[in-house]
Amino acid sequence: MPRILVIQHEDGTGPGYLGECLSDTGLDLHVLHPYLGEELPESLCGYDGFIVLGGTQSPFDDKDAPWLPSVRHLIRLALGELLPLLGVCLGGEMLADVAGGEVTHGSRGPEVGLRRLTKQPGAVDDPIFRDLPDEAPAVEWHWEELHTLPPDAVSLLGTELYPHQAFRIGDAAWGLQFHPEVLSDAVSIWAAHEREHLATEGRTPEDVANEVREAEPELRQVWRGLAVRWAALTRSEDLADAYPQDGARDRR
């Protein structure tokens, strides 16, 4: 059974629906909670994949989240080992930063709630994004911006406000600005905490939760497919099969 290291940064931001889908494929998720004092490993030995989840921290909040340097170290290891890596929101921002991109405060304000993500040309041949619809629904909840992608990164999805919503680095690392793990139950809780902010945008927590709830069947279908395809890459033979033009790759 492939074993996956998952880093959760705070309460209420666990692997959620993504974790459910990955577990259904037979993956063993080892979720660590460094904000509760759990220590992170110094290496990724014994793991077949690595997931860094989201949180309210920025990628540079080392003072308030002193475990972030260790997360960056593990991201570098995963990149060097071609270990399948998935960074979600904060995790995607950290991946972009580690790989040489630029993360800034969102120049056009936050994106909160349901959005439609446009498939980019780079997604056509991507092993986990190629089967997505041209317009995919997703839950957004970010204040930072993937301003500049790392060198040689492939853009996969975008929105009108923020064009870099998903990207790939090399053959085995993906960064997301959105939340495939989040459905309406979690959004209801998050939105209740952001009532004042939503009011400045002319919205209510109920509005935001309802739009996600209406799209939930589609959200489940689209992001389960992505989870299944990423799970396949955690098996070494499947990583080679994803890029047949380049032949087998030794990620160990």
UniProtKB/TrEMBL annotation:
SUPFAM superfamilies, per the entry: Class I glutamine amidotransferase-like (SSF52317)
Signal peptide range in chain numbering: none
Alphabetical keyword list: Glutamine amidotransferase, Transferase
Pfam families recorded: GATase
One Gene Ontology term of the molecular function aspect: transferase activity
CDD domains the record matches: GATase1_1
Positions of the Glutamine amidotransferase domain: 22-184
InterPro entries: ChyE-like, Class_I_gatase-like, GATASE
Gene Ontology CC: one annotated term: cytosol
Highest taxon in the source lineage: Bacteria
Name used for this protein in its record: Type 1 glutamine amidotransferase
